[in-house]
Amino acid sequence: MTKVMTTREAVSKFVADGDMVYIGGYICRPPFAAVHEIIRQRKKDLTVVRSNAADDFDMMIGAGVVSRFIGTFLSLGVYGLGRCYRRSMEKGVPHKIDIEEYTNLSLPLMLMAGSLGMSFVPVNDMKGSDLLNVSSFMGDGKYKIIDSPFDGRPTVLVPALRPDVAIIHVQQADETGNAQIWGIGGDCKAGANAAKKVIVSCERIVDRDVIGKDPSRTIVPSFKVAAVVEEPFGAHPGYTPGFYDVDFSLGFLYQQASNTVEGFEAFLEEWVYGVADRGAYIAHYIDRFGYAAYQKLMAAFDYSYPVSYAY
Amino acid sequence: MTKVMTTREAVSKFVADGDMVYIGGYICRPPFAAVHEIIRQRKKDLTVVRSNAADDFDMMIGAGVVSRFIGTFLSLGVYGLGRCYRRSMEKGVPHKIDIEEYTNLSLPLMLMAGSLGMSFVPVNDMKGSDLLNVSSFMGDGKYKIIDSPFDGRPTVLVPALRPDVAIIHVQQADETGNAQIWGIGGDCKAGANAAKKVIVSCERIVDRDVIGKDPSRTIVPSFKVAAVVEEPFGAHPGYTPGFYDVDFSLGFLYQQASNTVEGFEAFLEEWVYGVADRGAYIAHYIDRFGYAAYQKLMAAFDYSYPVSYAY
Amino acid sequence: MSENPNNYYIKPELMACCGAREIRDHDVVIVGTGFPAMSANIAKHTHSPNAILMQESGVVDARPMRPALSVGDPCLNPGSAMAGCLIDVMGMFLQAGWVDVGFLSGSQVDKFGNINTTCIGDYHHPKSRLPGSGGANPIGTLAKKTLIIALHDHRRLAEKVDFITTPGYIDGPGARDGWGFPPNTGPECIITNKAVLRFDKSTGQAYLASYHPGSTVEEILSLTPWHLKVADDVFETLPPTPEELRVIREVLDPHRMIRIYEGRGYV
Amino acid sequence: MSENPNNYYIKPELMACCGAREIRDHDVVIVGTGFPAMSANIAKHTHSPNAILMQESGVVDARPMRPALSVGDPCLNPGSAMAGCLIDVMGMFLQAGWVDVGFLSGSQVDKFGNINTTCIGDYHHPKSRLPGSGGANPIGTLAKKTLIIALHDHRRLAEKVDFITTPGYIDGPGARDGWGFPPNTGPECIITNKAVLRFDKSTGQAYLASYHPGSTVEEILSLTPWHLKVADDVFETLPPTPEELRVIREVLDPHRMIRIYEGRGYV
Q1: Residue of A198, D60, D94, D225 with fewest CB within 10 Å of its CB?
Q2: Which domain holds residue B223?
Q3: What is the residue-level pLDDT of chain B in tens, covering all 311 positions?
């Protein structure tokens, strides 16, 4: 039973105002086409969650679709601090988001706990830091400290997260949603499987038989998936291993633009509101920077050795 | 720095009497060459651990090398109950082993907890069953029940396991120990990474560059590995995806033999004590059943599509 | 009592069909081997083409070319949708609440649907030591519906099992809730070689829902070691349909390996 | 005060070498980008060929063809020994106790080696909102040794950080033990553009261990906002060796991207 649809349909049907949304990928495989579509559809009051966040989260915050952020980190990498994030936190522009801060150990484990049906998980970090002294919308549900019933030692427990929807970008999926990745995993498998439903954006839709040729690459099985979108170049300006490189020049453009509210708005107008979908975005990219610039992002060929599952 | 050695050396150096030993694989990729070597070296007083156990564990119990078993299940599959296991539990032959029983949910999570440096993990099973009413050498450390500090509900906590040594059989590894698998995973990744050191048995030692061509297949990194053994056919009579099929006929032979103590001893004499190593074992197999029988186990070719990690 | 002229089906086939009929399209089903796998596959090839079958070893939606003989069988690997690990299936799918149907068989099953696969006799001095839980306990605890396969006699059915390996309704209504089990889970039916027993949720006890062709209510009551209630609308189990039989014999099990269950008493 | 004739090395190169010298062969090292990655790679190419470098995103023993610009950089994928996930590195390797060395940089670092990467000013009304912990907190908590990189001035060094994102010795000796941190963990040194500060385990406070060529003890004391103790055997930091410089310039960073740190004040 096919779940193939457009990003517009998927975001419209499966991302509701007020949802908690897990968005996978950090530089590697961010589902940027879907992030743009969320902004384009002017979703409201989202809670967004991921360990390590970059330009995709910064842009959503600047666009005003985010009310709450469960995170660990947000920056533009080599380009420094997230401008929209700072404006929100320091000046309330466009509004101040509420933020619940964890770490790159605790937050992935909270997603893992959600994915495994555990209600909480013990972690050994955050102790002795001010991360235990601040909380926001999660209140005193941010964490608990108990004396371990095994050895009596103080132990921090953090709650499982079960996002309403997860959006991930993967290399390939079949039309029912079996999704496969390779390369840096981030917290993608835990985050996607923690969610109540998953939107799978992929570079290419492949036949179910292709999935079956290498089933150990699958991170999300079909029955968890609500929508499958074929969105080549869907992670740009992030990258997808085996498909295309990270685009530092667009990253720089974004940083420069987002230095001011006006610049940020103009950037959105040009790259999000002003284009109907990912196809139009790519066409605009080629139009503006030339086909050579686009082509230069294309990945080199360097294939792995095939393996066999036969018996 | 190479860690390549023979199975004899690896077992001699890294498996000590009294150790807690995790042994990976269930029908798929059991490290049978190492199991035979443990028996051949007449190790003593081992605590063995794995979810789902089969002929390999049954044989170790019958051979008397096991004192304690942390497990969930032991049978000979299509051939029914484990004969040596039953004799141990029902009649104390060769001695009664102590057994701590969990489930295929809780035990893998206890290994996962060990692998992740957590001291315990909450589980939602075992409640209302007699598994909570029996314990053995772990005493009241088998589990604890607390009221969840988040929602007040009774929650079972089970302790993390940190075996002294893990033994796994994989498709390929490099000489420093980076180990790669494909196909059914069982609790192999969690179990190996929970251990203080790992013995990697593999079908083939490959160059580090081969590992790097497909690094998402790696389940154990080199720095956890104490020994690497190239042991083709090392999982027989279990199977290794892409290499050889399960050998039902030897499984049947084992079941028939192990119906009696005498038969079991004769089986060990023929297939374990009577052969010096895996090479001699295979030679004996061919000698006894013919090369055609051996060749018939060889896997068909049915290769996956290569993927690229390039950018 | 209806006919089975020329023994056109055998009892294990009928039992497998009874299991298949409990599965709805799009159900996520944990199957082991033998009957459960056969049942789930019959469903998938008839009325539930979108059912997703998985094995606890980590395999989802396998496409085996022959019946799998263990949850780790080599034939489960090639062509599957996911070859993951125990934690994926038992944690990420089962404990996280995605599994609709689990299939279990028991050496001993009691009137509350509790299952014993641990030991006959005293735990510490067993008359017979059985394999243990494996995945059974979490499946029985966490799957939305549990289907139980058992032989119908005074040894395999019991007023009370010697050891609760896998909880059914434990000691009656409310017991699962008291332990905080997920709501609306528990045994759905016991499929024996004589009958299908279902559960009265108000008492947590099994009752006779249908008797297989060739059996009678009286025979079943005499083979059951507790006072078995009989449904007002008790009926004769529908024999395998021609389509079900075709799938079993032509698609799933051309070598008719299922006949080994006749030797194990499933007649 | 020794010479740096013709400016044959720049300060970021010296600082990277200071980091490299803290790594022993076979150490398992979590690196981020920039200095830490450079330091770890210098070590690997000189005295620690068997050191294992990893990034928190899930990569172990990468073989990048250019300096990685983020922990998720594409160049980290091809050729690595393992391309896993955050939980692999932060949980399976770091929390489980396998990481010997972590490298952190801080917007603010105090005398106890506590690091602030969260905010300048009040948390709820920040003057400046910084990125947050990311992997820093668990690395500082759980790695056996933590190396800290910081600018040496009254803004970046502090008597007390505005916000403890990553605990050093917290408020003095015993504090880590009190929280149940793994034994014998904690900050090893603070490498600044002027000096290397080490920690007196009996007080949990940083002291001056060596001053970089071109700096003096007096200058460093005046640039440090707390009363900095000076080691009896304080010495001048060894400049980059020819071999270290060769590795930096010919192997790791032929385009000399490290020079961007000069623009950030590392002079």
Answers
A1: D225
A2: 1-102+110-116+162-298
A3: 899 999 999 999 999 999 999 999 999 999 999 999 999 999 999 999 999 999 999 999 999 999 999 999 999 988 889 999 999 999 999 999 999 999 999 999 999 999 999 999 999 999 999 999 999 999 999 999 999 999 999 999 999 999 999 999 999 999 999 999 999 999 999 999 999 999 999 999 999 999 999 999 999 999 999 999 999 999 999 999 999 999 999 999 999 999 999 999 999 999 999 999 999 999 999 999 999 999 999 999 899 999 999 99
pLDDT at C2 > cutoff 60? no
Q: Is the Cβ pair C95, A117 closer than 8 Å? A: yes
Question: Which chains does B contact via 3+ CB–CB distances below 8 A?
Answer: A, C, D
Tell if the CB–CB gap between C135 and B103 is shorter than 8 Å: yes
- Whole-complex ipTM: 0.97
Nearest CA to C116 among C125, C129, C103, C101?
C129
CA distance A141 to B150: 7
Question: Is residue B283 situated within a structural domain?
Answer: yes
Q: Left (φ > 0), alpha (ψ -120 to 50) or beta: where does C180 sit?
A: left
How many Å apart are CA A118 and CA C91, to the nearest integer? Answer: 8
D64 by Cβ neighbours in 10 Å (0-12 / 13-18 / 19+) ranks as buried
Answer yes or no: is A156 within a domain: no
Fold of C2-264: Glutaconate Coenzyme A-transferase (3.40.1080)
Locus of tokens 């007096």: D218
Is residue B236 one of the residues assigned to a domain?
A: yes
**Which pair of tokens denotes residue C161?**
């099992």
Place of tokens 């590697």: A28
Distance between CA A273 and CA D249 in Å, rounded? Answer: 45
Write out pLDDT tens, residues C230-258: 999 999 999 999 999 999 999 999 988 88
Query: Residue D2: what pLDDT?
Result: 56
Tell me how far apart the alpha carbons of residues A66 and A49 are, in angstroms, rounded to a whole number. Answer: 10
Report yes or no: A144 and D115 within 8 Å, Cβ to Cβ: no
DSSP A153-190: -EEEEEE----SEEEEEEEEE-TT--EE--S--TTHHH
Question: Looking at residue B38, what is its pLDDT?
Answer: 98
D46-71 tens-digit pLDDT:
999 999 999 999 999 999 988 888 99
SS3 B302: coil
Q: Is A127 on the interface with C (CB under 8 A)?
A: no
Picking from B72, B153, B190, the nearest residue to C134 by CB comes out as: B72
Q: Do B128 and C141 touch (CB under 8 A)?
A: yes
User: Got the DSSP string for D223-253?
Assistant: H-SS--EEEEEEEEPPPPPHHHHHIIIIII-
Nearest CA in chain B to C117: B73
Any idea what the Cα angle at residue B74 is, between residues B71 and B77, rounded to 5°? Answer: 145
- Give CA–CA dist A273/A276, Å, rounded: 7
The alpha carbons of chain C give a radius of gyration, in whole angstroms, of: 18
Question: Is D219 a residue of the active site?
Answer: no
pLDDT of residue C1: 46
- The residues, ordered by sequence, that sit 6+ positions from A92 with a Cβ below 8 Å of its Cβ are none
Distance CA C149, CA C37 (A): 12
**Separation of alpha carbons C239 and C243, rounded Å:** 11
Q: DSSP letter at B183?
A: S
**Residue B153, domain member (yes or no):** no
Give how many domains chain A has, as a whole number: 1
3-state secondary structure of D119: strand
- pLDDT of residue D7 exceeding 80: no
User: pLDDT at position D112, please?
Assistant: 98
Q: What is the DSSP string of A183-220?
A: S--TTHHHHHHHSSSEEEEEEEE--HHHHHTSGGGEEE
Domain range list for chain C: 2-264
Which residue is it, tokens 């623009």?
D263
